[in-house]
Amino acid sequence: MDAIVARAMARWPDVPDVYGWLSLDRRGQWRLQGGTIGNLGLRQFISRNYMALSDGRYVFQNGPQRVFVALECTPWVASLDGNGELRTHTDAIMTGLQRAWLDDDGALLLEFSEGLALVDDRDLEALTATLVDASGAVVNDTAQAEAIEALLDAQSPGLSLRWNGEDLPLQRLVRADAARKFGFVVEPLAPV
Questions:
Q1: In what order do the strands lie in the sheet with 166-173?
Q2: How many domains are contained in the chain?
Q3: Is residue 187 part of a domain?
Q4: What is the mean predicted confidence (pLDDT) over 27-39?
Q5: CB burial class (10 A; 0-12, 13-18, 19+) of residue 9?
Q6: In this structure, what CATH number is given to the domain that contains residue 23?
């Protein structure tokens, strides 16, 4: 959190929360009332001050004001940077990768130390090229397609995503169950 934000919180502790203004889309872009935020400095400020609350809601701490974030899919969006590193939409290197998930829409999700991240669809091809079978052999496109179909049909194809020498088991995740399973709130609502 920026120092200026912490000082503002101490100075004005009772500023009302904001709901329904800020969202995070499937490609990790901040949206204000549906429109993409184009200003780089503002995007970076939001990213530096984005955090989870203990109840699974995500907020942007804007000085003393909490701006609740609606999530199009997950609280984190992963993408490959120019060096082949996985980074979140906040530009943090992803650590503690545990599992890979494929949801019912064919999206790839990664479980890591901060929770669940949707992989930006522009990086799917590069990441699925690292899928290996139970013997550790990289699977070709045909075998990959068959295994993904089996996974979507709730069968276990025995695939893993190989990343930095680790094999992350690929499992099926029903999109509607993701928020409950991983403890995040997709659409935070103002208290009534």
A1: 86-88, 76-80, 115-119, 108-112, 99-103, 166-173, 160-163, 131-132
A2: 2
A3: no
A4: 95
A5: middle
A6: 3.10.540.10
* Residue 72 host element (H or E): none
CA–CA distance, 80 with 70 (Å, rounded to integer): 24
pTM given for the model: 0.88
Query: What is the extent of the structural domain holding 44?
Result: 3-71
At 133, phi and psi to the nearest 5? -90, -175
Same-domain pairing of 61 and 100: no
Higher pLDDT, 9 or 20: 20
The answer to whether residue 31 is domain-embedded is yes
**Which tokens go with 93?**
């290197």
The whole-angstrom separation of Cα 58 and Cα 100 is 22
Of 71, 96, 120, the residue that ends a domain is 71
Rounded mean pLDDT, 71-82: 96
Residue 101: pLDDT band (50, 70, 90) is very high
